[in-house]
Amino acid sequence: MSCYQRRSAGPGPGPGPGPGGGGGALGLLGAAGGGGVLPKGPGAGAGEAVQVVVRCRPMSGKEASQGHTQIIDMWPQRGEHVARRAAAPAHSIYCIVHITNPRARPGRGGRRQEARMFTFDSVYDWNSKQDDLYENTVRPLVHSVLDGYNGTIFAYGQTGTGKTYTMLGATPAHGQCPGGGRERGIASKCFEDVFRHIAYTSERTCYVVRASYLEIYQEETRDLLSPDLETYRRPLTLGEDAARGVYVKGLRSVVCKNIKAIERVMRVGNTNRATASTNMNEHSSRSHAIFQVTIEMQSRAGAGAGAGRRVGKLNLVDLAGSERQCKTGAMGERLKESGKINLSLSALGNVISALTAADVGSRTRSRAWSRHIPYRDSKLTQLLQDSLGGNSKAIMIANIGPASYNYDESLMTLRCAGLGGKGP
Predict the structure, then answer these.
(1) Any known ligand binding at 312?
(2) Hey, which of 248, 298, 337, 422 would disulfide with 206, CB 3.0 to 4.6 Å?
(3) In whole angstroms, how far apart are CA 71 and each of 60, 110, 157, 239, 348?
(4) pLDDT tens-digit profile of 66-105?
(5) Local structure of residue 258 (DSSP, 8 states)
(6) In a 10 Å sphere around its CB, with 0-12 CB exposed, 13-18 middle and 19+ buried, how is residue 151 labelled?
(7) Helices and strands in the chain, H and E counts
(8) CA-angle at 195, arms to 191 and 196, nearest 5°
(9) Domains (ranges, CATH) in the chain?
């Protein structure tokens, strides 16, 4: 599948794990990254088309008991540390992910030689907490939405790598959206920030918060807030006009006056998604789920209709799992399903690649800034068109697993997130 371009600094054979050592990780990155687009330290990507971060879950007890080894090393602090040193070389502000091929033969010193380095705006290892990811990466985007911008957060990666955990937190059962605890997902934290901001500023600004929940399955758009399965089965169509941009015709929208109300909407949608996937012999991990929050803001001091009015939109996107067909053994309907997912993810990758090239071109006065952005290649990219281009902000959270048996899938995710090349 085509993947999205982030950096010209790509993977190369690594010198072995560990952040130290002359000619080590930073030396390699310096050689590989010449002429690349450099991030701006902590909070990098705030002015770029898309900010890409990587998160790796811990090894599970089952993986360890089955004899799988850890193949991922991450240095999340390196970028944060050197970014505070004004004299540090520009290329050294990257955060690093190191992946080792478990099938490679040991070389000198017993180290496996086939290893790759990737660099990203931020990386979060198995010791990171939900609060770390939210405070350092997500919260600035939420604040931009409250300023009237559009923002999108994608959770991307293989099924079982923690996409849903990142979005929803530690959910005891399908459909739950816990409102408390350190393990809350970024969705709940976003809602909390939105309504806290509203409480602080409601004396001078009027707010209306609306929530919708939809999924895209095999390029068909469905309303997750449908009252029954029969209504859910009917695909919705996309429309477009000057006032609303691209929208889903007939999509339900619920006004939410507090965090409990918006979490209730998400909980209903999650329950419907799980129920529908069971009844229709599908898997919820095989569809893209998009929770949309629209915030209308009107200054109380505004003179006349529309004066001082702003609208911000937040999209929380749980992407379908990026499995490799040769490993899943998909056949028949499942093979068709996988093909649609790959085409959709490929279209998203092409859009992000084009946006990144356009962003670079506009800042370097290159012709790249005027290139065509292929939004209409999939329902997902068409629907999110007004939340990806222009002054919008987006974060791609690429989730990977640390175990050796998922080497190919983790490598594909890292390549797609960091290179814009072709996945396996």
Answers:
(1) no
(2) 298
(3) 14, 15, 17, 46, 28
(4) 999 999 998 865 444 333 333 334 444 568 888 999 887 6
(5) S
(6) buried
(7) 13, 14
(8) 110
(9) 11-126 (no CATH), 134-401 (3.40.850.10)
329 is in an annotated binding site: no
Query: d(Cα 392, Cα 193) in Å, to the nearest integer?
Result: 19
Least confident of 9-13, 118-122, 218-222, 298-302: 9-13
pTM of the model as a whole: 0.80
- Give per-residue burial for 41-61: e unless 16+ CB within 10 Å, then b: ebebbeebbbbbbbbbbebee
What gap in Å lies between CA 238 and CA 219, rounded to an integer? 11
Q: Which two tokens stand for residue 31?
A: 């050689």
Among 154, 187, 144, smallest CA distance to 43 is for: 144
Please check if 158 is assigned to a binding site. yes
Q: Is 385 annotated as a binding residue?
A: no
d(C-alpha 15, C-alpha 25), whole Å:
7
120, 363 Cβ separation under 8 angstroms: no
Q: Find out whether 162 is annotated in a ligand binding site.
A: yes
pLDDT in tens, 301-359: 865 556 678 999 999 999 988 766 555 555 566 677 778 888 898 899 888 888 877 76
- Rounded to the nearest 5°, which phi and psi values hold at 39? -70, 175
CA-CA distance, 169 to 165, in Å (whole number)?
A: 4
- The pLDDT tens digits for 357-403 are 776 656 555 554 556 889 999 999 999 998 888 779 999 999 999 99
Amino acid present at 72 = I
Mean pLDDT, residues 104-111 taken together: 63
Catalogue the E-assigned strands of 285-416: 288-299, 309-318, 393-400
Measure CA 293 to chain center. Answer: 16
CA angle in degrees (0–180, nearest 5) for 211-355-131: 50
By mean pLDDT, which of 2-6, 79-83, 191-195, 407-411 is the weakest? Answer: 2-6
Distance CA 107, CA 201 (A): 62
Residue 410 backbone dihedrals phi, psi, to 5 degrees: -65, -40
In angstroms, what CA-CA distances link 98 with 14, 54, 75, 419? Answer: 8, 12, 9, 14
What does the radius of gyration of the chain's CA atoms come to, in whole angstroms?
A: 22
Neighbouring-strand partners of residue 236 = 221
The answer to whether 371 and 357 have CB atoms below 8 angstroms apart is yes
Share of the chain above pLDDT 70, in %: 68
**Neighbouring residues of 352: CB distance < 8 A, sequence distance ≥ 6:** 4, 5, 49, 50, 388, 394, 396
